[in-house]
Design goal:
The complex is a heterodimer. In chain A, about 70% of the residues lie in helices and about 10% in strands. By secondary structure, chain A is of the alpha/beta class. In chain A, strands 1-3-4-2-7-8 form a 6-stranded mixed beta sheet, with helices on both faces. In chain A, strands 5-6 form a two-stranded antiparallel sheet. In chain A, a hairpin with a 5-residue loop joins strand 5 and strand 6. In chain A, helix 8 crosses helix 9. Chain A is rod-shaped and about 185 Å long. The radius of gyration of chain B is 20 Å and the shape is globular. In chain B, about 50% of the residues are buried. By secondary structure, chain B is α/β, with parallel strands linked by helices. In chain B, helix 1 packs across helix 9 (about 235-250). Chain B has helices at about 1-20, 50-65, 80-85, 100-105, 125-135, 155-165, 175-185, 195-200, 235-250, 255-260, and strands at about 20-30, 70-75, 90-95, 105-110, 115, 115-120, 145-150, 170-175, 190-195, 210-215, 225-230. In chain B, strands 1, 2, 3, 4, 5 and 11 form a 6-stranded mixed beta sheet that branches. In chain B, strands 8-7-9-6-10 form a 5-stranded mixed beta sheet, sandwiched between helices. Classes of the chains: A alpha/beta, B alpha/beta. The interface of A and B includes residues 83, 91 and 100 of A.
């Protein structure tokens, strides 16, 4: 693993808690801002309903009463009888006394002036009916003043609503801007969150998934870019440790397999493993029509050697023989310690004659080979071998024939190679 | 426990509304002759009936809106508030202004219209006093005069408050018509009355002896919004009446009622 410089890492749970908290805070602030705007709209609406609209109605009422006052003034000038004038005059006094006029200084002054003028004109008309015509121009000025005031009050009333609605619209525009800003902010925040999730969680997890899918002892340990998230880094480290563990386990398995298949004294494969390999080799040879031969060899007088020199000497002889076999046979030949001082051999792609030559050479070399015992004594040991063809039979049958030939070699005086076909 | 209290409160409110389904209504009148009237009988062409008629129509419309059966009784103005206060009446109509003192005695509905006060007198008396005062007579400069007004009215309270300072003699009358009659028989120099009450009396007075004097006043407790008086303990009825008033205003019924009897809007 490539050593990495220490880097600050953050726990994903903390990072996303922080992210969620920031989002909640941001959302809360946005909601609060919108709530403030909503409250302002509600207050503006309430003000419109409770203050402005009643105020508008007051202005309308005042304008209506002033117009009424003006109309009654006109009636006084158009009345043909004194009684008609008196009735209109009484109505002028009634209208001029209305609180809506009294509470508005400008209207009150106009109404007071109008009433005084009309009372004076009416009293004068009671004495001289033609006097009204002389004062009509004066009345027209007063009437015009009342009309202007009526118009002003109507406009003022409408303006009150306009101002309130303008304020409300400004708040709504502001709220809309904030809402758009909030949506952009939330959208940006979501994109950032997705990007961070993809960069720091999803892609690292995909890399880990890929690494775990292809995790193999034959492959090098997986490499990951340095992760910022502590949890991801931990999983990557665990993946690396898993690979190291797989490699270690494979090595152990191989060693155990070796121990299970080899003879501990001679280092040759054992009988069980020999039988497995021999079965496979015979199947291959028989399938391809290739020759194959087997042999069983036994060290002569080995029990007597043990009894004379001890088991340590016997072991030395066995190791020496195994070493000689390894040096004398081909790489493709199989040799095992079949049991005790007995050895089994298999010669792939070899006819019975070719095998006999090989076995004979081994026998001769072993017979001439000085074996140094643990106490330094040099001895020589001979070998008897039974050889059989295995080209068209099972390994068990072939070994049985070879064993029979070995028996014959022993019976005929030992230190010789007997081919099964020669005796059966 | 709180559930029980809520249930009891609801039962109490329902009971209040049920109680309001039989309403006794008092309407203040202008003239002694009107006191003899009963039921819906308001004699036509009688001076001062316009305001009674408006109150009468409004009372019946409110009763209809709150689905109550009403019994209308015409009483002198001075008996309206005591009648409502004592529980004799459920609703009191009579051009009643709302004041802190009155609020201690009765509850008030939402405003129904606006009122102001004004001096009345003969033109001769007005001219005579103007000569003495050196300026046209008004409530602000009136002094050394006999002034008639309604008993138990805000005008009476106002006049009593300034009487000693101005040298005024305040004369209480049971009805507006009595106050005007005092002007005719020269037992009073001026009368201080609500403008609407005075108008409805003067409008049918063909002698034209009595006229408005000076300018109207809506401050100093002599004007403002007019309300219906209700017993203080019946909030459910007050809410129901206020809803009825809002409804009557919203569909223009109120304007139609006032226009039926007056040549101008009263609100």
């Amino acid at each position: 693993m490539t050593p990495q410089s220490p880097r600050e890492r953050h726990r994903a749970s903390h990072a996303f808690l922080l992210l969620a908290s920031a989002f909640a805070l941001l959302f809360g602030v946005i909601l609060a801002l919108l709530a403030i705007d909503q409250q302002r709209v509600l207050l503006a609406t309430q003000r419109l309903q409770e203050d402005t609209v009643p105020q508008i109605i007051r202005f309308q009422r005042l304008a209506r009463n002033l117009e009424h006052l003006r109309q009654e003034g006109e009636r006084i000038f158009s009345a043909t009888t004194s009684e008609g004038r008196q009735q209109s005059l009484l109505l002028v006094m009634l209208v001029a006394s209305h609180p809506s006029i009294l509470e508005h200084p400008q209207a009150a002054a106009a109404a007071r002036d109008t009433e005084r003028f009309l009372v004076d004109a009416s009293n004068q008309a009671n004495r001289d009916a033609w006097s009204l015509q002389q004062r009509y121009a004066e009345w027209q000025n007063l009437s015009y003043r009342l009309s202007l005031l009526v118009d002003d009050l109507s406009v003022q009333g409408a303006s009150l609503a306009t101002d309130d609605l303008r304020d409300m619209m400004a708040v709504l525009h502001l709220a809309r801007t904030k809402l758009i800003g909030a949506l952009l902010l939330v959208g940006g925040f979501l994109l950032l969150s997705i990007w961070l999730l993809n960069r720091h969680l999803i892609r690292p997890l995909e890399r880990i998934d890929q690494a775990l899918s292809s995790l193999n002892v034959d492959q090098p340990a997986p490499e990951f870019p340095d992760a910022r998230m502590a949890e991801i880094h931990a999983v990557e480290e665990a993946t690396r440790r898993l690979h190291a563990s797989l490699v270690s386990n494979d090595m152990a398995r191989r060693e155990l397999e070796l121990l299970a298949n080899r003879d501990g004294l001679t280092g040759l494969i054992n009988r069980r493993h020999f039988m497995q390999l021999a079965h496979a080799e015979l199947q291959r040879a028989q399938h391809l029509g290739r020759p194959v031969a087997v042999a069983l060899g036994d060290l002569d007088f080995f029990k007597r050697l043990n009894d004379t020199y001890g088991h340590a000497a016997g072991d030395a002889v066995l190791r020496s023989f195994a070493l000689l076999l390894g040096e004398s046979l081909r790489q493709t030949d199989l040799v095992c310690r079949y049991g005790g001082e007995e050895f089994a051999l298999l010669f792939p792609d070899s006819t019975l004659e070719q095998a006999r030559v090989l076995v004979e050479r081994v026998r001769q070399r072993f017979a001439e080979h000085d074996i140094r015992l643990p106490d330094g004594l040099l001895i020589r040991v001979t070998l008897s071998v039974g050889l059989a063809d295995a080209g068209r039979r099972t390994i068990e049958n072939a070994l049985h024939d070879a064993d029979f030939a070995l028996y014959e070699a022993k019976r005929l005086g030992r230190n010789r190679v007997i081919v099964a076909s020669e005796t059966t | 426990m709180s559930l029980l209290r809520t249930l009891l409160l609801l039962i109490g409110m329902v009971a209040g509304i049920v109680q309001a389904s039989e309403l006794r209504i008092a309407i203040g009148v202008q003239d002694k002759a009107q006191l003899a009237m009963s039921g819906n009988a308001i004699p036509p062409n009688m001076p001062g009936t316009e305001l009674i008629a408006v109150n009468d129509d409004l009372a019946r419309e409110i009763c209809r809106r709150i689905q109550a059966r009403c019994t209308v009784t015409y009483v002198p103005f001075s008996e309206v508030l005591p009648g409502v206060e004592s529980g004799l009446f459920d609703l009191g109509f009579g051009n009643l202004l709302r004041t802190p003192e009155r609020e201690k005695r009765v509850a008030f509905s939402a405003p129904i219209w606006q009122s102001s006060s004004r001096l009345l007198g003969t033109s001769a008396t007005a001219e005579a006093f103007a000569g003495k005062l050196g300026q046209p007579v008004s409530l602000d400069n009136l002094r050394d005069a006999r002034v008639a007004t309604l008993d138990d009215s805000l005008q009476l309270a106002f006049l009593n408050a300034i009487a000693s300072q101005r040298g005024l003699t305040v004369i209480g009358k049971k009805t507006a018509q009595e106050a005007i009659d005092a002007l005719r028989d020269n037992s009073a120099d001026f009368a201080l009355l609500a403008v609407l009450s005075a108008y409805s009396l003067l409008n049918r007075d063909t002698t034209r002896q009595i006229e408005f004097v000076g300018t109207a006043v809506a401050d100093r407790g002599l004007g403002g919004t007019v309300h219906i008086a209700l017993p203080k303990q019946n909030e459910a009825l007050r809410h129901a009446v206020n809803r009825a008033i809002a409804s009557i205003r919203a569909d223009s019924t109120f304007q139609r009622i006032t226009r039926r009897h007056f040549p101008m809007g009263l609100d």
